[in-house]
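Assess this one:
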Amino acid sequence: MKYTIVLHILGTILKYLGLLMLISALVGYYYSRLDPSEAPSVMVFIYSGIITSAVGLILEYRNQGSENPKKRESFAIVAFSWLAAAVFGSLPFLLSGFSPVNALFESMSGFTTTGATIMTDIESHSKALLFWRCFIQWVGGMGIIMLFIAILPNLGVAGRQMFRAEAPGPTEDKLKPRLKGTAKILWMVYIAISVIEFIVLKVAGMNVYDAVTHTFTTMACGGFSPKSDSIAAFGSPLIEGIIIVFMFIAGANFALHYKLIYVDHKSLLKDSEFKFYGLIVAVASILVTLMLWNTGTFHSVLESFRYAIFHVLSILTGTGYATFDFNTWPDSCRMILFLLMFMGGCAGSTAGGIKVVRILLIIKYAYRELFKTLHPKLIRHIRLGDRVIPEEIINSIFSFMILYILVFMISTVILSLLGIDIISAASASIVTLANVGPGFDLVGPWSNFSTIPIIGKLVLIANMWVGRLEIFTVLVLLIPGFWKD
């Protein structure tokens, strides 16, 4: 392990992260002219930015070298970049009066686009701080390493392993021969769709601040909102409809959005994962709608469908917005939402969870094995569209699934041992591991994670970190041989 390489790139990332904090300082300065109580937030972000950039500069210049990171260094860079971003990103929360653990929880939840919060009265905090927690979700949505591969020349060649360690999904989409070109395209698509959503939300009646912050957290499938009542605060079916559309878009592969515009206008309809993603949304929404209407939770089918499709997409993509307390829904509906928490969106999206492509490939594998019981000598490849999926990818998916369930079970048991009821413990574990946000009962959509004991919060912080980096990138650090030359 070449530690100087890891520390050098960590320093570069922290240097620029400190500069990003100045954006929130400018937001605080603007609103301080309208409300003097906002003034302290300006210095909070200036101090945080100075500290973060100073540490970054020290690490960068004390560990200079010309070597490119190998596989082990790449895994370490990705894992510790996200951890360092969360630690230093927590400074504004810490300087605003949060306890160290709560500050780290909120920051990690932001960068990993989880959306779980410990804030009890969201509107009481400064607009600059609420802007920061939404902004870091937007940055984390497309990926910290992906951002720096796109903008930094020294990561263009060595970024392949880092990209693979961070990318959501078992396979990568190569849009350009050079990785830097692919990263730039994905970020440009991400920015372009974000601009469109901002304009549409503004036209629909949101003010500029609300439109910007909700655009950040919708496109990132993050779910943080500067409103305690989330999207329900606006009471607008039109705004809900817009959010539904953009949650669906954000839950799909961003490489497909590029191909749809520039390569093949039928690329979405040809993509097996996207079609399966759409099928899951449609079936889950219809089932929840019928259950809500049949149990009299809502008076009409239309009203039932309005709340069903919003929360199905919100939970499936891991956005975590709420327009209704789904804790009060029938158990049959809650069970469907619980299953959706595991699934997540498409590979290459900003959504969390296992990813639709893994579930689709497991189904295809199971079908093949059942078919082979009738035809033992059959040789049949698993295909995804026109591509033959190598057996090593199938094996890695099963390894991923085993580790995913294992982490979920261990964290659930730990939370239960801390005195948390099993429903709250299980839902808190999966919504942090799958980067969803709200769960059930104690951590429901109208509640928060503030009542979780400190040890429990640390477990959930680890869940968010492990889940965002798709298990392997973090857990490989636990292998003793990883640290040996």
About this structure: The radius of gyration is 22 Å. The chain has a mean pLDDT of 91.
